[in-house]
Amino acid sequence: MSAAARQVAPVDPRSAGAMVSVRSVSKVYPGGVEALNDISLDFPRGQLTTLLGPSGCGKTTLLKIVAGLLPATSGEVLVEGRTVTGPGPERAFVFQDFALMPWATVLRNVAFGLELRGTPRSEREDVAAHYIAQVGLKGFESKFPHELSGGMRQRVGLARALAVKAEVLLMDEPFSAVDEQTRRKFQEDLLQLVVNEQKTFIFVTHSIEEAVYVSNRIILLSRRPSRVMRIIEPDIPRDVSPDQIRRNTAYLDTVESIWQGLKQYLD
Amino acid sequence: MIVFGYKLPMATSLILWAILWEAVGRLDLVSLIPPLTSVMMRFEEIVPTETFLDALALTARAFALGTGIAIVVGVPIGVVMGRSAIVDRLLLPWVNVFVSAPLTALVPVIMALFGFGETTIVLTVVLFAIWIVVLDARAGARNISASLVEMAHCYGATPWQAFSKVYVWAALPEILAGIRLGLVRAIKGVIIGQLVVSVVGFGYLFEIYQSNFLMEHLWALLLVLFALAFLIDGVLGYLEKRVEYYAAAR
Asked: What 3-state class would DSSP assign to A247?
């Protein structure tokens, strides 16, 4: 364990500051594939927590259980103390493949969550326009998804999640379908967003660098059936420029230490 | 097509066959085939007649109504089948039976139930068109990307909202392909219906021409119907192309 990242107890019993708590969640898929094995975790309010692990380890499964898209086989998920039984307005999801409606404009896509809630058209379009501008897509409101690049499409996905003003943002490998340069920009913007929006972010990635760069906390999951292997809180200065962060020794040491931990799963 | 270095337009083969037809007709080889030119002359003669226009109006009405019912009923059933395993199990065997069954044999049954009027013809059109519409809408609904379904669920769509705002649109390319095939079958339905009933519309005209051995009239009528079917198919093909752009983007 490097000095740069300190290790904390796997489960904090006093989950007072937790926005989302996962309590002994297990998931067995029909057919007997055991994806998650007795996972207990707290996701602190206003922070970005990353689920990181070898591919196919059940990170996305856990995220979808938190989203209410998948039922847990046992255990429960609490959001602000209430048990999750399905999707709810306090949680919004950002999809790996963007999940935009190709027949709808950027404006309608972003406003879609509000449209489903029955918000009047002019009101929801005002909100959507605000978030479209915030993610840097001002002027693209009337474009269709197929007219945008991959990176821009994911910005639309992000704006849609922000527009519903959910407290918890669930992001499923949101940058994995985006090219490397765009991804870096995205990561920088995400840091800014965490600071500005004061929301609880749960972020799934398979990129160690990305995890260390954007996260307040990193939860390392083992190979299937997943258990919590380690929780890391990267001790990296956030108030410096992105380039300085990427050259920071604490950053590099944390990346290295996680890599050493995950290497065993590659055969 | 390039022949001896000359680029020939698509219609060339059509002209070739027309010339062949004319020749066969002129040589009086087969008594059933009059020369194309005399068929064309008949064309001008029968099209403005009242019987023809009435038959055309009846056919158009029955066709429009029948396909309308087939689409309005068939698309929702297909989409629901594609999204719900229970409904699918319940209905799929029937749809599969009817989509390939010799439906002409059922027309007399409809006639026995609903008489010799327009209702029978409309229902025949529905019977011919609806199954492929259902089947293609089902295929479209099954192909909707999992994440789009999750998106609708996640952002709080009610089942009705998910159906009307997401599923139908996401399945639209397949739905339109199904409607196109359905319309082609509907054309068969509207003609076969009239032929079986044979006291109204084109069925009546066919009956007269056939029994009086008016081959030129018969061919002229057939050409009109073929052209109509071709036109409808063409229009739908064009519409389908217009939504193709997002078929790939889903």
From this structure: helix
